[in-house]
Backbone:
């Protein structure tokens, strides 16, 4: 079995069903040195992942014009042909998460029956949420609700018998209140239970097999019930390599969006040029900050940055609630939840729908994006969730962030829709990355709130990058969580380079294509992972007792 001192993973405390294996963490690792720098990397996961990613960056930067057309075509083909697969998979992950909460498995404690949490609730929730979707909420918090609202209000349009509009479902032509309800329901659908269920399934699998089963903290460990000892060979290598690709390109998508929005905010507030050069410089600077946080470590760097982030996010949220249509926001929170429940069956149904643009361009992209993020967010959540019961863990991961997302979207999106109804059409006419700042310009203290918004985008950028670097490093180090610092710096640097390559090689289309294309193979991996997770939970002592 592995040694807690060498792997950084604590031994189970209390009765658990340890998996006995001859595999030792790091046994396939190599330790090359470059000058004073020493590496400790898994062979062949690190080598294949690194070479493919380096080649991708070089080719994309060398063929920028060709890359633009390629990425656009790839994104459109994947979302149009496989939207049904992504939607069905998302539903399966939600059902799996809910089953874990209500079944007797919920009483199992991560790390053993005597384990206690490493972090208190405030720090735990901060890290959960900051890592999960911070940049996305900033980028789409205003843009998506008003986009859905405008499309729903305009109603259905057709050319040659094919819908050309972007309205969810059948829209709500001419009905402002109906359009608002449908728009908010559709937005919450994309940011509520489904993404957090994806994260939760991956996180629970990693935590269970690492802290209860004694296996390395890496994606392949989840699949031990399926492959047995073969998981340490090529089946496991492929799973970990796919996890690295999904994590890196999913992160790059978010980092590219964050750079676009930060640049737009700085241009809006200070007149900074809104150009590719500026965005590249922003990515370089912010990647440097993230690298410093990574070097500082999980507790000193990532945790503190996450907590700062959540304080700023809470302040901006409270500001919008206080200075916006306060009563409408408070009542809208409950009304939007009701609308979400009402429209959830129709929005999650993959068949018999005609809203192709919305279903393929929004939902399928989002599901692939969340899935590409799942190895990163899942492993990060697993690392900070030892000592929680399975039920406590899944309720926190599934419900708490979902409710916060509802409040965020209601506050920012609802305020924007109210302002548009009052005649401030400049919000909907602004570019996607500028719509947040256009909305804030109609509230008091515009300069201060916009500046806080820019800082939030940057810090969310940093928390995503530093958390992702820690996770990729763990995977490519064969499950070691205390690998040399130089490796974390390497991956933090490459996240920035990939984001730059995608941004220059095709902009938003390239970023979206990267998320979708890496999310597809990993969706298949995660569906198999649900089966392996159920097997793992059933083998735990409390699971056996409860089911007998």
Residues:
């Amino acid at each position: 079995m592995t040694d807690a001192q060498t792997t950084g993973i604590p031994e189970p405390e209390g009765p658990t069903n340890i998996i006995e294996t001859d595999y030792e963490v790091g046994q396939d690792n190599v330790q090359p040195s470059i000058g004073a720098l020493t590496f400790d990397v898994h062979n062949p996961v690190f080598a294949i992942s690194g070479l493919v990613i380096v080649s991708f960056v070089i080719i994309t930067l060398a063929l920028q014009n060709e890359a633009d057309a390629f990425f656009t075509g790839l994104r459109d083909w994947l979302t149009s042909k496989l939207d049904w697969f992504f939607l069905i998979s998302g539903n399966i992950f939600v059902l799996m998460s809910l089953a874990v909460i209500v079944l007797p498995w919920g009483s199992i404690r991560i790390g053993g029956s005597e384990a206690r949490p490493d972090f208190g609730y405030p720090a735990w929730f901060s890290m959960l949420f900051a890592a999960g979707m911070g940049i996305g909420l900033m980028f789409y918090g205003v843009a998506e609700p008003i986009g859905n609202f405008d499309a729903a209000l305009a109603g259905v349009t057709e050319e040659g018998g094919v819908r050309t509009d972007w309205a969810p479902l059948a829209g709500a032509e001419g009905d402002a209140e109906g359009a608002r309800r449908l728009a908010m329901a559709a937005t919450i659908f994309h940011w509520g239970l489904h993404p957090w269920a994806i994260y939760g399934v991956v996180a629970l699998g990693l935590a269970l097999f690492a802290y209860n089963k004694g296996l390395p903290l890496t994606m392949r460990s989840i699949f031990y019930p399926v492959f047995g000892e073969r998981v340490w060979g090529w089946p496991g290598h492929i799973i970990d390599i796919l996890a690295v690709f999904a994590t890196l390109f999913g992160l790059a998508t978010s980092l590219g969006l964050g750079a676009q929005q930060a640049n737009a905010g700085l241009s809006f507030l200070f007149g900074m040029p809104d150009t590719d050069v500026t965005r590249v410089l922003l990515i370089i600077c912010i990647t440097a900050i993230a690298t410093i946080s990574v070097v500082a470590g999980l507790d000193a760097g990532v945790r503190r940055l996450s907590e700062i982030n959540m304080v700023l996010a809470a302040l901006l949220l409270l500001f919008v609630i206080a200075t916006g249509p306060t009563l409408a926001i408070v009542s809208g929170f409950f009304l939007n939840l009701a609308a979400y429940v009402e429209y959830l069956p129709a929005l999650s149904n993959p068949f018999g729908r005609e809203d192709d643009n919305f279903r393929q361009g929004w939902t399928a992209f989002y599901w692939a994006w969340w899935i590409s993020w799942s190895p990163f967010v899942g492993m990060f959540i697993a690392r900070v969730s030892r000592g929680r019961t399975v039920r406590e863990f899944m309720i926190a991961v599934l419900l708490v962030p979902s409710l916060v997302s509802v409040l965020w979207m209601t506050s920012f999106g609802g305020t924007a829709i109210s302002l548009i109804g009052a005649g401030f059409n400049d919000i909907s006419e602004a570019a996607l990355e500028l719509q947040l700042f256009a909305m804030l310009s109609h509230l008091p203290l515009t300069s201060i709130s916009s500046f806080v918004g820019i800082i939030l985008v940057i810090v969310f950028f940093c928390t995503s990058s530093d958390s992702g670097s820690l996770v990729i490093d763990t995977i490519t180090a064969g499950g070691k969580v205390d690998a040399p610092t130089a490796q974390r710096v390497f991956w933090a640097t490459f996240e920035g380079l990939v984001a730059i390559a995608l941004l220059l090689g095709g902009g938003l289309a390239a970023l979206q294509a990267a998320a979708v294309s890496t999310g597809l193979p990993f969706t298949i991996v995660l569906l198999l992972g649900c089966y392996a997770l159920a097997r793992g939970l059933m083998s735990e002592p409390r699971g056996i007792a409860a089911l007998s």
Q: What stands out?
A: The two ends are 29 Å apart (CA to CA). The chain has one domain: 4-410+443-547.
